[in-house]
């Protein structure tokens, strides 16, 4: 077993690439952890698509308000300077290119930046897309945080997504437990290896050609 | 003097006919008009097409309406949730149809209906199965999908404060789709926690102007869906 | 000279045809007078397209707020229960069919309901349309208040507008100094004659075939 | 800590380049950002395309900017007014171009730009000369005209209260086009009568969320255009 990055370390690494003052939308799962690792001296403002800019951390039991939740339907708090708005305004922020960074989990990412994170396409699956397709088309930079492979060892970074796409050619950077991987015109390229991980291991576990760090 | 107040939730939904298209405000449990939904269950209209972001939770509110067999079609962005079992079962049994619409497109289609815009272009769903069969057109070298407005016969809305002219404010993220749905329905029915006289809401703070609202019912102690579910309740 | 209706009487007559509880947009000029003649027992709510629902009468000098004006750029007041909103919401009310009645002045109205009230089409004229084209397409019922003829005696109710259209086939009823005239499938039809006016006079002064009262 | 405050109107407009497209908030005198406009006159950028409902009044603010020869094109719905002589003279002399857009279409095109919607359909202008050369398409048997989004490099906005994150409220009908223009410009510059710390505006009462605002300058005693005109003032 390799060392690599933990879930928290992946989130912390992703946070390093978000500029000060950015408006950020965090997907459900590991992406949510990004908010715990804002680098010293920076501030991010969190958007949640159900109508809130300036989302704060989870509430204590006393703070909890049943009408104050995020897009993952978890109860949240607000920071001073927050604003509420309706869904059309909220998705204007997304589709209109006003959100700087979106950090998403995924099922698959392809070497051309295609992402598939909403449906397995299984015949008996109930389709549920939420705001995923709006986010990947509208937000300026799409980051993905994901384990490098599935629980059964299949690569999640692939030549071509086998699952139905959420959006084509939208992902710019991927943060896995093994490496930071860029989507470039030449396909995947490792930008950084996790501690104790060598390029060969990353190459083996990637389902598409991948270039070593420059 | 104009006064849009109705005496009860029962009266406010009494003329919703079978086969109506009904928008229901709320995102998950937040903003869900439980009392109006339960009145609609009591009323019994069937073959409804319901527009909501989700499909309800537990066995109350929207989930109960679906579970009661009154809904023939759902239009929503996310029909799954950890506490939503009613819809998946009926859907798999072929008893309720589903039109899946991305959340931002759903919001914009509803707004478009209220704004008199029959169609618009969005980048959302380009290159995906959800764009199949839809017109794709390039603007400035980028492809966009054409989407049409989405109207309803009725909207069922929960708000925080309403005045007798139908001006509304909401509570926190319970606002979500509700102001849009008020615009897009022929008849908008609102349950409000507090009903005030005209002038009771600062004109600068009105979120939904009264022109978009037809009926207001005061429900001073609205039950929150989360509370009903935590108590394991079902309806009827 | 015939008796006919004064400007105030024309406005009062138009007000009679607006139902209780209507949301109403009044154009500049004679239409503004409608607000002074709301029939006993009725209430109208006035919309002004620059972002106000619940417009009240003109302010006194003390009441006047420079930031509170109507679409004609006159200072106004608000009634209790008013609401402010931005221009996109305001024109959603118009274009989305939420305003019940719009009362407009005009240069010409044609027998098929065409209206021309924004431009003479003169080569040196500076075009200025404002919200006129949105109103005539969006509001449920378009009423026109106008003198039956121009100052030089030319008919304003015509077979076909010679001025550039504001909108085609949109007018439902016209209130002139001589008569109330409906736009029907058979063209103009007098619905009501002003006191002291006979049908022949109306017919003479109308630039298109016009039917007598039923 | 994010802080969008700028020290002066001069600094806030200093990088507006020649040839820029600039949206200017306001409807007539109400909401017109006089101090920002005068700073733009001092700054001297030329060949500007300006988007506003009108063309200014008297010889101050927007009218003065046009009169100073800095505007090569106006996009507006109503270029005439009883107190607007500057634009008509320059327009007739062929020194400034004009694109006339119906008021509701102007508002919706600006919103569309902010909302990422490149084009939409509206019934407005159907059957008129303003629809000439535009795509007309039927939906449900009724013809509509296609209109495209309208973007800008800068927006100059006047508001009532702003916080340091750029959340804004407005005063009465001075709101008009301003919230839309904030959405549609690459760089939105706001002059505010009152600047408060974050938290100083109730999150329920924010009209323009800070994400749409880049720069905020406090102008505690803004001069109203109507007052300048009543005094017969001109600028510079």
Order of helices and strands of chain A: HEEEEHEEEHEEEEEHE
Text of the CATH class of chain B: Alpha Beta
For the sheet with most strands of chain B, the description reads: 9 strands, mixed
Number of domains of chain B: 1
Whole-number tally of structural domains of chain A: 1
Q: Characterize the main sheet of chain A.
A: 10 strands, mixed
- The coarse silhouette of chain B is globular
Classification by helices and strands of chain A: alpha/beta
- Give the CATH H-level superfamily of chain A: Glutaconate Coenzyme A-transferase
Tally of helical segments of chain B: 7
Rounded to an integer, what's the Rg of chain B over CA atoms?
18 Å
Mean pLDDT of chain A: 96
Strand tally of chain A, please?
Answer: 13
- Strand order across the biggest sheet of chain A? 4-3-2-1-5-8-10-11-12-13
The assigned structural class of chain B equals alpha/beta
The CATH class of chain A turns out to be Alpha Beta
């Amino acid at each position: 077993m390799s060392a690599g990055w933990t879930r928290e370390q992946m989130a912390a690494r992703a946070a390093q690439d978000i500029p000060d003052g950015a408006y950020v939308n965090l997907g459900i799962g590991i992406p949510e952890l990004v908010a715990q690792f804002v680098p010293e001296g920076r501030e991010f403002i969190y958007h949640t698509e159900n109508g809130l800019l300036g989302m704060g951390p989870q509430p204590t039991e006393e703070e909890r308000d049943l009408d104050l939740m995020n897009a993952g339907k978890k109860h949240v708090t607000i920071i001073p300077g927050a604003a509420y708005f309706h869904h059309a305004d909220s998705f204007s922020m997304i589709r209109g290119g006003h959100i700087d960074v979106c950090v998403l989990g995924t099922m698959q990412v392809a070497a051309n930046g295609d992402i598939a994170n909403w449906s397995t396409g299984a015949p008996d699956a109930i389709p549920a897309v939420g705001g995923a397709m709006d986010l990947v088309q509208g937000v300026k930079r799409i980051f993905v945080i994901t384990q490098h492979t599935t629980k059964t060892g299949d690569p999640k970074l692939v030549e071509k997504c086998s699952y139905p796409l959420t959006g084509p050619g939208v992902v710019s950077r991927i943060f896995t437990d093994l490496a930071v991987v860029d989507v470039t015109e030449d396909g995947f390229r490792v930008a950084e290896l996790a501690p104790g991980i060598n390029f060969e291991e990353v190459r083996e576990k990637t389902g598409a050609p991948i270039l070593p760090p420059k | 003097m104009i006064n849009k107040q109705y005496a009860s939730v029962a009266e406010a939904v009494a003329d919703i006919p079978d086969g109506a298209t009904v928008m229901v405000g709320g995102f998950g449990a937040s903003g869900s008009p439980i009392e109006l939904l339960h009145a609609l269950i009591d009323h019994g209209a069937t073959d409804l097409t319901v527009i909501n972001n989700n499909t309800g939770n537990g066995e109350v509110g929207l989930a109960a309406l679906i579970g009661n067999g009154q809904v023939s079609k759902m239009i929503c962005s996310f029909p799954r949730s950890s506490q939503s079992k009613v819809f998946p079962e009926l859907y798999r049994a072929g008893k309720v149809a589903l039109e899946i619409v991305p959340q931002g497109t759903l919001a914009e289609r509803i707004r478009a209906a209220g704004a008199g815009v029959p169609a618009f272009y969005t980048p959302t769903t380009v290159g995906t199965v959800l764009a199949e069969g839809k017109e794709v057109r390039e603007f400035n070298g980028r492809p966009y999908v054409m989407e049409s407005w989405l109207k309803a016969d009725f909207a069922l809305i929960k708000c925080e404060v309403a005045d007798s002219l139908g001006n509304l404010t909401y509570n926190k993220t319970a606002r979500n789709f509700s102001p849009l749905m008020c615009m897009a329905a022929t008849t908008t029915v609102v349950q409000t926690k507090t009903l005030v006289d005209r002038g009771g809401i600062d004109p600068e703070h009105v979120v939904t102007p009264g022109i978009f609202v037809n009926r207001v019912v005061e429900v001073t102690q609205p039950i929150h869906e989360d509370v009903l579910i935590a108590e394991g309740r079902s309806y009827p």
